[in-house]
Amino acid sequence: MAPGCTLVLVLMTAAPSRTGAAPVPSPLGALPGARGCHMAQFKSLSPQELQAFKRAKDAFEESLLQKDWDCSSRLFPRTRDLRQLQVWERPVALEAELALTLNVLEAMANSSLDHILDQPLHTLHHIHSKLQACVPAQPTAGPRPRGRLHHWLHRLQDAPKKESRDCLEASVMFNLFRLLTRDLKCVASGDQCV
């Protein structure tokens, strides 16, 4: 897909085709809240953007040496992979992951890492704003996320209540490059992410 092209995600609807034989795919952009989904630009970030994230992660690791912390749980387990979700669920999961990451990094920006987090926060806010156009609005009634997606969303939602601040910061910082190089790339690749 050429840079600047619109990423079109496809959902299988329950509506029968004209022949009544099979479900008809409908683009995610046709759903409420999913207009203008343009994620292909995020298949890879620039070296300068990745370097800003590396500086932030390195500074965080330096600050860990001065702390006595012990985190036993893994908020982002290695076995979690967006490819395990349906194509339409991936932006929903990534948006929740990105929202938590932004909340944690914004809280950290009020610390000694504030100047180092400026560029990463700017980049993440930009990605988040574009990603929100790909996530269907949550209806107040009707079907809710199920299965693996429900489990992931619930885990991310509960993390600030269950994890210590230090462990939450560590989980988010150590997950940053997976978020940027694997999860974001998967969502930007749409159904080509297999």
TrEMBL record:
Any one annotated GO CC term: extracellular space
Database matches in Pfam families: IL28A
Designated gene of the protein: LOC103012028
Annotated family: Belongs to the lambda interferon family.
Coiled coil (UniProt feature): none
Protein origin, superkingdom: Eukaryota
Keywords of this entry: Antiviral defense, Cytokine, Secreted, Signal
Signal peptide: 1-21
Name of the protein: Interferon lambda-3-like
